[in-house]
Write a structure and sequence with these properties.
Elements lengths: L2 E4 L9 E7 L6 E2 L4 E6 L4 E5 L4 E6 L6 E3 L3 E6 L29 H6 L13 H9 L18 H9 L2 H4 L2 E2 L2 E2 L7 H16 L2 E9 L1 H16 L6 H15 L5 E4 L2 E4 L5 E3 L1 E3 L2 E3 L2 E2 L7 H16 L13 E4 L19 E5 L3 E7 L2 E15 L5 H16 L7
Parallel strand pairs: 14-18, 18-19
Antiparallel strand pairs: 1-8, 2-4, 2-7, 3-6, 4-5, 6-8, 9-10, 11-21, 12-13, 14-17, 15-16, 19-21, 20-21
Helix pairs in contact: 7-8, 7-9
Length: about 400
């Protein structure tokens, strides 16, 4: 029996995904869990595995199309079930959150759906028109190779490749290069704007002494390496945050209209920077893990995020997020809350600084920690109590927990 391949749910607030690339083509043999296609959302770029072994008998959605989660995008079956080749390239791409129909319209019907020609305008899909707009290209100047002279994506990309004057136009005398935003970048932009409009962002910044943590880290570093883990500052921070969220449940909550939703699970999102954007994989039940378990979990999700091997559940259900702008030297950051959460921790660079210690100047390992929180639910005093608790447990980290 044929197996439908659907657009997966890649996060609790994600309603759609964009197919960036088909790794397999119709007629290819695939194994179960073998990468089938690559998608992009505002939270993750990921390679999606095949749900079954067999032959890719049908592809229903073009590269570059955005469809609703759970939409059928392909079919896995047997070699004798391969569907006739369809001219997917000539179809207009689906609009955001538009569910793909069970069958693909034939090329003639697709051409009929294109914008009417006339007044010198050529038929084209919304994707082609968007590319043309982004690059300030008049579609009427392009010879279309599709049905009825339709301008396809192949046509306009070929035109741009051989027309550098259009790809790098002059603007007010300035020579510039114009490139469209990636799917992931667009989704991140939408998500960040939504968060700013939703939450009343307020920030508290605490200066934290990491000297005790640094000492413990040096002492136990080799032991952790022998156990196959890297003992990082982030592991210590995640441990303290997980424990503190148990003592301050409001920071681990969310808002649903006029109701406060207290989350029983503590699922820490750990932001991972990629060349194409930021991904926030989730460490589930972080408060139940010891320092070694957190070290392994952080390394695991970071490595899989960078290699595009995250599963849908890896970016779903986070209750609190930690981001680390300090890894490149930033003193501190003011991160935007990851909806529907109500707080986020920013970690500044951890470095040696001169500070006052018992009425004397000494060199200590210090860092600024910033808590961004939603003032609709969390008052300043509550946020500062949480951060004071975090500061105290980092500065007096229990050696028995290492």
């Amino acid at each position: 029996m044929p197996t439908p391949v659907v657009m997966p749910q890649m996060g609790e607030s994600i309603a759609e995904g964009t197919i960036v690339r088909w790794i397999k083509k119709v007629g290819d043999q695939v194994d179960r869990d073998e990468p089938l296609f690559e998608i992009s959302t505002d939270k993750v770029d990921a390679e999606i595995p095949s749900p079954a072994a067999g032959v890719l008998t049908e592809i229903r959605v073009n590269e570059g199309e955005t469809v609703a989660v759970n939409s059928v995008v392909a079919t896995i079956g047997q070699a004798n079930e391969v569907a006739p080749a369809k001219q997917l390239e000539s179809q207009p791409p689906a609009t955001a959150a538009t569910k793909v129909e069970p069958t693909i319209a034939p090329p003639v019907a697709a051409a009929a759906q294109a914008e009417p020609s006339g007044n010198g305008r050529r038929k084209s899909s919304p994707l082609v028109r968007r590319i043309a707009k982004d690059h300030h290209v008049d579609i009427g100047r392009i010879a279309g190779s599709g049905i009825g002279g339709r301008v396809t994506k192949h046509d306009i990309l070929g035109y741009l490749e051989h027309a550098p004057g259009d790809a790098t136009p002059e603007r007010s005398g300035e020579h510039v290069e114009i490139k469209p935003l990636s799917v992931m970048r667009k989704k991140i932009a939408e998500h960040m704007i939504l968060s700013q409009r939703t939450s009343a962002h307020v920030y508290s910044v605490f200066h934290v002494n990491f000297s005790t943590v640094e000492k413990l880290r040096r002492q136990k570093k080799r032991d952790y390496e022998q156990a196959g883990a890297k003992l990082t500052y982030m592991a210590f921070i995640a441990k303290v945050i997980g424990d503190a969220l148990r003592r301050h449940p409001i920071i681990n909550a969310s808002l649903d209209g006029d109701n406060v939703v207290y989350k029983r699970d503590i699922n820490l999102g750990v932001a991972v920077a990629l060349d194409t954007g930021l991904i926030v994989p989730v460490i589930r039940n972080a408060d139940e893990k010891n320092l070694l378990g957190l070290s392994r979990a952080i390394a695991d999700v970071a490595e899989r995020a960078r290699s595009k091997r995250l599963n849908p559940e890896d970016v779903h259900g986070g209750t609190f997020t930690i981001t680390n702008p300090g890894q490149l030297g930033a003193q501190f950051g003011l991160p935007i809350i990851n909806q529907p959460q109500v707080a986020i921790l920013g970690v500044g660079t951890i470095e040696k600084r001169p500070v006052v210690v018992e009425d004397a100047i000494g060199i200590q390992t210090m860092a600024y920690l910033t808590l961004g929180y939603d003032h609709r639910l969390i008052d300043g005093a509550v946020a500062d109590q949480f951060m004071a608790d975090v500061k105290d447990h980092l500065e007096h980290f229990d050696p028995n927990q290492v």
